[in-house]
Amino acid sequence: MSDKIVATYVLARPAAEAARAARQVAVEQTVEVPESLITPDIERRVVGKVLEVVPGGGPELFKARIAYEPELSGWELPRLLNLVYGNVSLQQGIRLVDLELPPAFLARFKGPNYGLAGLRKLVDVHDRPLLATALKPSGAPISEFETLAYDFVRGGGDVLKDDQNLCDADLKAFAERVKRVQAAVDKGNAKAKTKAVYCPILCGPADELEARVDAVLKAGAKGVLAPPMLLGLDTVRSLAAKKKLVVLAHPSFTGTFFSDRSHGVTPALLLGTLFRLAGCDASIFPSPGGRFGFTKEECRDVSRALHGPLGRLAPAFPAPAGGMTYTSLPGLAAVYGVDSMFLVGGGLLSHDRSVYEATKAFIEAIGGLFPSRSGRVCPP
Amino acid sequence: MSDKIVATYVLARPAAEAARAARQVAVEQTVEVPESLITPDIERRVVGKVLEVVPGGGPELFKARIAYEPELSGWELPRLLNLVYGNVSLQQGIRLVDLELPPAFLARFKGPNYGLAGLRKLVDVHDRPLLATALKPSGAPISEFETLAYDFVRGGGDVLKDDQNLCDADLKAFAERVKRVQAAVDKGNAKAKTKAVYCPILCGPADELEARVDAVLKAGAKGVLAPPMLLGLDTVRSLAAKKKLVVLAHPSFTGTFFSDRSHGVTPALLLGTLFRLAGCDASIFPSPGGRFGFTKEECRDVSRALHGPLGRLAPAFPAPAGGMTYTSLPGLAAVYGVDSMFLVGGGLLSHDRSVYEATKAFIEAIGGLFPSRSGRVCPP
Description:
CATH architecture of the largest domain in chain A: Alpha-Beta Barrel
Oligomer: homodimer
CATH superfamily of the largest domain in chain A: Ribulose bisphosphate carboxylase, large subunit, C-terminal domain
Order of helices and strands of chain A: EHHEEHEHHEHEHEHEHHEEHEHEHEHH
Structural class of chain A: alpha/beta
Strand content of chain A: 15-25%
Largest sheet of chain A: 5 strands, mixed
Number of domains of chain A: 2
Distance between the termini of chain A: 48 Å
């Protein structure tokens, strides 16, 4: 394995320009000076090395692999983003599609606090995908959230999160709401003899995030829903490293990286590899077929990036979401496998049965998806 | 003026679907539930209100204005981003093109510490655009940066910044380099009787940013170069609010917001309005004609967003950059006017004269661009 950071880009360029374009990326991302100012010493020590430029799977598409000295990343996330996609994000037709990170880089990262195995242990569910839902809509009274939380947990649901749009008046109101919802979750767990966890939204002014995390832990909640692109990717990493939290990553404000398939960063890299580096135990993303535009292949790749080897970092849950229904479960199971978390929001709330009944039905259906895994009967 | 947050989107939709698409945005961004679950009370208090949907300047383009309750922004930046573009960033053909922020929202923000007038006072230049350059290339010895800094300042340059790619081994190495470069700037200022400022790069782990700012201030430097999309927009705001710094914003990692003109956020909104809200005194962006893809109109709009009214927030400098040369100065002056900062990197370093001579020549040329402003002769 290389000791360099190797980034693979797809360049939308005519064949005659592909090699030159790859060199321009290597220069732009490291020294950003005209070629005439690059001394042999700087060339050798600092400028990115174009390893290869090969046809990239379409007309006028080329794949360029570029090796960067890991020192240029400062061994941390903000500079890594700058190094592999900072300035070239402002140019046209350059898409970052793969990132090979050397062991020395990965060793600096703690990764998910719980990861797949830890979160399974926490919720005590070992043989099927987890079922998650969201408290919504924003603006509803806390008593409705308490009822929803209790019914979902008592129905056998595993992970309850806030909707990312929930917005409390201030830190005090947030702490109060989290306390009440966590109490409802506790009550549901006692009733169903389960260990469901609750992850309130972590969003707010930079200076207040740690206080919010403390309020969450003080209320007995085990994790948070964190949107890395709203808070800063390294802000999330730092909080996850300091506090023993389950971190569910929310993809709010990430969509511009994916919408133009000739530009940006793949969902697998951003929502998979990078969010996992930041310590996310699960990463939520829009599953195909709903109202968002991801393809099945992109979703599968996110899943692989969360599950696959990444130094000694724990694997994390892919959490497909968005317009999911009871009938889409077998398809989801086929794509994501058993080590996934199905986030069902509106589909659970607008089910023709009560939330309790609907959750039970979902859990039963999910339990039946992987019968070979064990003979264990799913929760009451 | 409305007391709501009013966002304007361009929707790439057929005429028959435009009104429904606007409603979907309003629902997605606030409650994210199926229509059937929206009670009259939630509709009234929480769901975004579609104010109008009108033809949007192209075939199958519609402009939709949507009013949001400002409470849903939490009166802060991370939630504002979530509210106006969080989830819909993951859908296709929805571009955020304007944002009207009510006085009560703007009143929560301190804005630029210095702004146009304050930074002019600091560098004591009142009658022409400022000239800025970058220390580069990454990997060069500090002694070269000292020479470059001294020559640029002695030649009359106003703002010296690190290249965003500069990467010191650690905080100690950073502090040492900043101290040495600032000493060279001081020496240049003493020689030229000027007041040039130096802004080192602020990039690194979230937990270390404040220590880096302290090292900058301790060295006598007046500001930083901060990349908001690498650090988190509100992280930058928080640091600017706590410490009296000049903040130059760097656009690293912002390009995906702009590349697809049917999607994303306009440069004026992100690099102008939002960066100014975060307290940036100047915002760097790629000027047209260089190696980046902004149009002249987009650049002019960034400039207007930085200069125009925004509550009581100080206006800030547009800092066009990227492939700028001596001959492009009159064109830049025509686009950005006198209250701008021209960031010349490679163009200054690869000029056929020395950096000192080249800086002098640029300053003289810049001084001649606005002769009517005053009779003041430009620096020696």
